[in-house]
């Protein structure tokens, strides 16, 4: 307030309060204020969809490779759909995981911190049944746990996922998934602080009669050092088919190019050119010990040394020219 009350005004206000002349009854809250709810900062839930271009590229590439690998492994077509990226608290994520579940703790070296790979029990037991030669479509998971033999069989699936995950991360940031241990109960997979923020991504797998999820849980602090790479527009480039790439390289490397080695340059008159005879000498602008220029398709690319190899004239490569040096040679020519 800009105005300061005088002592007389303060005395009048106090006497009004004592005499009841001033109403001190609290006002009823307005209708819009009655709908306001208190927010407890000590107990809240983070749940938000994210747009992280780098992770989306990784997920798309991993989905394509896992679709092919799982279809071959299970001997039936597997449909894989990407799930939206979610950000939430680690304890909220764990509370949603049922028991039993195939939980695998790993690290993305050289990044710090630990991450989780979650495979729904229905999918986990389906893989186990197929490894053992069974063809059952409906699998009961309630009350079951994974035996040591079943855990070893599941490790093959986990290794396959980690192998494809490493390939999917290659164009974003080279990482190496390192397996730490497996768990069945989420209570024993508390590798992060309960209030820590995590990024959850994954897939929904649909088979003929079974469906389930495969999820990855990354700590936000783990991805923090490479956030610029994950948000960079570079990550939006399309995945390159390796077969197509090798075929293209084969055609390019087998292409023929014109290569000329320039020993030197000299100037003579037309009359001297017409009257040239065997044994005459033409003086060039280069000394014997100076490197000669090698042109590829008319562009200077190499400096070399003239010599003989297997009774044939040859040029030994001494240096590849930079773009600036190429321009200097062109100007001098």
Short characterization:
With 333 residues, the chain is α+β, with helices and mostly antiparallel strands. The chain has helices at residues 7-19, 31-34, 53-74, 90-95, 121-131, 148-169, 220-223, 227-231, 242-253, 270-274, 323-332; strands at residues 47-49, 79-89, 102-109, 115-119, 176-183, 197-206, 211-219, 259-262, 292-296, 299-309, 312-320. Helix content is 34%, strand content 25%.
Give structural notes.
The protein is of the alpha+beta class. The protein has 2 domains: 199 residues, CheC-like (Chemotaxis protein chec, 3-Layer(aba) Sandwich), CATH 3.40.1550; 77 residues, Roll (Surface presentation of antigens (SPOA)). The strands form 2 sheets. A 7-stranded antiparallel β-sheet has the order 1-2-6-7-4-3-5. The N and C termini lie far apart (84 Å). The mean pLDDT is 82.
- Based on secondary structure, the structural category is alpha+beta
Helix content: 25-40%
Low-confidence runs (pLDDT<50, min 5 residues)? none
Mean of all residue-level pLDDT scores: 82
Kindly report how far apart the N and C termini lie.
84 Å
The top-level CATH class of the largest domain is Alpha Beta
Report the total helices.
Answer: 11
Multimeric organization = single chain
């Amino acid at each position: 307030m800009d105005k300061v009350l005088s002592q007389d005004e303060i005395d009048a206000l106090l006497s009004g309060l004592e005499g009841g002349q001033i109403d001190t009854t609290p006002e009823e809250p307005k209708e819009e204020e009655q709908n306001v709810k208190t927010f407890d900062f000590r107990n809240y839930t983070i749940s938000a969809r994210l747009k992280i271009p780098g992770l989306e590229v990784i997920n798309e590439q991993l989905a394509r490779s896992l679709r092919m690998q799982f279809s071959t492994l299970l001997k039936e077509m597997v449909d894989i759909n990407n799930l939206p990226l979610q950000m939430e608290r680690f304890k909220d994520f764990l509370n949603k995981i049922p028991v039993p579940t195939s939980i695998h703790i790993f690290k993305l070296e050289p990044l710090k911190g630990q991450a989780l790979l979650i495979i729904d029990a229905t999918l986990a037991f389906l893989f186990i049944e197929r490894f053992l030669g069974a063809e059952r479509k409906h699998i009961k998971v309630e009350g079951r746990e994974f035996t040591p033999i079943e855990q070893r069989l599941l490790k093959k699936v986990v290794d396959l996922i980690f192998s494809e995950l490493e390939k999917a991360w290659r164009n974003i940031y080279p990482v190496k998934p390192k397996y730490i241990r497996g768990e069945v109960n989420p209570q024993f997979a508390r590798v992060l602080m309960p209030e820590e923020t995590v990024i959850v991504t994954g897939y929904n797998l649909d088979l003929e009669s079974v469906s389930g999820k495969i999820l990855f849980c990354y700590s936000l602090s783990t991805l923090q050092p490479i956030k610029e790479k994950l948000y960079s527009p570079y990550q939006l480039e399309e995945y390159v088919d390796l077969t197509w790439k090798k075929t293209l390289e084969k055609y390019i490397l087998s292409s023929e190019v014109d290569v000329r080695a320039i020993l030197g340059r000299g100037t003579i008159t037309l009359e001297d050119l017409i009257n040239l005879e065997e044994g005459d000498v033409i003086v060039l602008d280069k000394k014997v010990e100076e490197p000669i220029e090698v042109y590829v398709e008319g562009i200077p690319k190499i400096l070399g040394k003239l010599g003989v190899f297997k009774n044939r004239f040859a040029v030994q490569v001494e240096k590849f020219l930079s773009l600036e040096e190429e321009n200097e040679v062109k100007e001098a020519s």
